[in-house]
Amino acid sequence: MFTTPVIRALRRRYPDASITYLVETAAAPVVATNAHLTAMIAIPHARGLARIVDDWRLARQLRASHFDLVIDLHGGPRSAWLAWATRAPVRVGYDVPGRTWMYTRVVHRPRVLLPRHSVLSQWDLLPAADSSFPPTPDPSADRVEMPVDPTAAEAVAAQFVRAGIPATARVVVLHVSAGNPFRRWPEPAFAELASGLAARADDRWVLLTGGPSDREAAARVLVDARRRAGGAARRILDVEGWSLAELRAACDRAALYVGGDSGPLHVAATSDVPIVGLYGPTLAARSAPWRPSHLRTAAVDVGALPCRPCDQRVCAPGDFRCLTGVTAASVRAAAEALLEP
Length: 341
Prior knowledge:
By secondary structure, the chain is an alpha/beta fold. The chain has two domains: 4-129, Rossmann fold; 150-339, Glycogen Phosphorylase B (Rossmann fold), CATH 3.40.50.2000. Helices cover 37% and strands 15% of the residues. It is built from 14 helices and eleven strands. The strands form three sheets. It has a six-stranded parallel sheet with strand order 8-7-6-9-10-11. Strands 3-4-5 form a three-stranded parallel sheet. Strands 1-2 form a two-stranded parallel ribbon. α8 (187-200) links the parallel β6 and β7. α7 crosses α10, α8 packs across α9 (217-229) and α8 (187-200) runs parallel beside α14. The two termini are 29 Å apart.
């Protein structure tokens, strides 16, 4: 998602260029509807021998395309090798040890977690490719973007009708899981938040979503939230199974999105929905929604900790205090403020 401002900037700079985006299939929906791209190549996240075979076949395809410029926005070993395999005359990437020889132009990427937005790190590659690009992007002109898929919008609208959600309802989308377990806010806190938001006003509906990495999270939160919500229980629903495209479409119909620092939050950021982001081991300075400042956004975290931010490989204190220290009351206060007219 953080690469989409780069895509827009490239199209603006090269209006007649052929721009191809190489992406793994899981993230392909993010750029599938991007009008600035000429083509998209989606590849599977294969392992072992299958991956080697796939990559050799892909390398031949890329080299035959005769690209003039290749920008490696990922920086991993696979993307670096594929960038080199294109034999493009200009190949731009980060100065990751052991990979710099695969590029013709190299950009420094700090080895520590600085309080600097990830979009800026992606953007750093552009001036290295072409000095006419400005050194930093403006989120008003180059926000993250994911255009709505009309088919997904129709599916979400039909689901709202089946669920009995009135057209006048104020819908809160609550994403209750994360692919990275180090970013999962406790489920009881989500349940407390969901029940409190639904019970506050009769026109509120809370929709719980979860990702494929933790499919049961939304179901567990649903049971707990309904138990707490009393008469508002029927207005708390589990919409587990939404695709990224459907989540994006639903955000255009929502009054609020609440979720941790994971992919779905940044999908929501491509809409104009007010957002409450929950930050545990990560910093809002690095991954807050990248969009115009007039769009309402709040970040909630536990504050300064000696171990925060971290590399999310092991919890040094062992108690995930950066997440457990974020109270449902503090998140609800931020949510209520954004739900005010």
